[in-house]
Amino acid sequence: MPSSTGRMADAAEPTIADVVIGAMETLESDPESLVLLCEAVEESYGDDGTLAGEAFRACDGPRRLVALLSWWNMLAPSESHLADVAELRQMALELISNLCSDAVDADSAKTKLALLTCGGELALFACLKAEDELVVRV
Known about the structure:
Number of strands: 0
Radius of gyration: 16 Å
Distance between the termini: 40 Å
Helix content: 55-70%
Shape: globular
Largest sheet: none
Number of helices: 8
Order of helices and strands: HHHHHHHH
Structural class: mainly alpha
């Protein structure tokens, strides 16, 4: 079946929802999942952005990402077993900013509400205390 660009859709190519769901399955255990998730959402606009936001919310993404941010905010660099907590936190903040943007997801208000419902504002405000300037700027 032709896509909106007129090309035939590749049956083996995963949808944006598949990518989001797959990355969310290992989000807490594999930092590379966050990288994959950020890259996929960063390139999603229009219908793909809306599908990415829906999949993120369906996987309990807002609550899970807030929980990770809260944990990363509590860790001092010397306490972390992760290679770079500041970099992971920065990626999480970029992901949140994309999924809360109407330019990416026309239904971004649902993501914003889900973030507020699970206490996301506390995790976001705590990022302002980060020692890494890039985290604070995001």
